[in-house]
Automatic annotation (TrEMBL):
<keyword id="KW-0378">Hydrolase</keyword>
<comment type="similarity">
    <text>Belongs to the Nudix hydrolase family.</text>
</comment>
<dbReference type="Pfam" id="PF00293">
    <property type="entry name" value="NUDIX"/>
</dbReference>
<protein>
    <recommendedName>
        <fullName>8-oxo-dGTP diphosphatase</fullName>
        <ecNumber>3.6.1.55</ecNumber>
    </recommendedName>
</protein>
<dbReference type="InterPro" id="IPR000086">
    <property type="entry name" value="NUDIX_hydrolase_dom"/>
</dbReference>
<dbReference type="InterPro" id="IPR020084">
    <property type="entry name" value="NUDIX_hydrolase_CS"/>
</dbReference>
<dbReference type="InterPro" id="IPR015797">
    <property type="entry name" value="NUDIX_hydrolase-like_dom_sf"/>
</dbReference>
<keyword id="KW-0235">DNA replication</keyword>
<keyword id="KW-0515">Mutator protein</keyword>
<feature type="domain" description="Nudix hydrolase">
    <location>
        <begin position="1"/>
        <end position="129"/>
    </location>
</feature>
<keyword id="KW-0234">DNA repair</keyword>
<keyword id="KW-0479">Metal-binding</keyword>
<dbReference type="InterPro" id="IPR047127">
    <property type="entry name" value="MutT-like"/>
</dbReference>
<dbReference type="InterPro" id="IPR020476">
    <property type="entry name" value="Nudix_hydrolase"/>
</dbReference>
<keyword id="KW-0227">DNA damage</keyword>
<keyword id="KW-0460">Magnesium</keyword>
């Protein structure tokens, strides 16, 4: 399963993270906002759609830069996930956790200490090594 996610920078050293609402896979963990790529979508189209649905933010396609990916090994119960991470700089327009959970801005050191799904641990480590 292909998932796209966004590392949104505020331009002042903080990054937006989303805490998954109760009742979902990885509930209560902090992750990069995003979601599944639907059939027929490009990863960037999926990311723009997910960020509009999840945060109410209109992302510009030309502002998205690929930042890395992380892949699960084969799990027994379901198809393995591959996450493609993109970065973008926030344009300052308003944001909200429209599908539940909470959002927050964190420094790289704070992101490193948040409870995250395993793939996000890998994505964050790669991202902050590069930035
Ligand atoms: N969006 C997102 N999902 C992640 C991340 N890391 C990670 O393991 N996942 C997993 O990827 C899967 C798909 O994400 P999602 O549930 O947000 O996708 P979605 O909104 O399209 O799904 P839904 O409509 O079933 O709620 C979930 O199992 C989620 O736990 C991440 O950083 N961002």
């Amino acid at each position: 399963m292909c998932v796209v996610a966004l590392a949104l920078a505020d331009g002042e050293g903080r990054w937006l993270m989303h805490r998954r609402p109760p009742g979902k896979h990885h509930a209560g963990l902090w992750e990069f906002p995003g979601g599944k790529v639907d059939a027929g979508e490009t990863p960037r189209e999926a990311l723009i759609r997910e960020i509009r649905e999840e945060l109410g933010l209109a992302l510009a396609v030309e502002g998205l830069s690929p930042a890395g990916f992380a892949e699960e090994t084969r799990a027994e119960a379901r198809a393995p996930i591959v996450i493609m991470l993109y970065t973008s700089v926030w344009n300052g327009s308003s944001l909200a956790a429209l599908e539940g959970g909470e959002i927050g801005w964190f420094t790289a050191q704070e992101v490193a200490r948040l409870d995250k799904p395993p793939l996000d641990v890998a994505l964050a480590a790669d991202l902050f090594e590069k930035t």
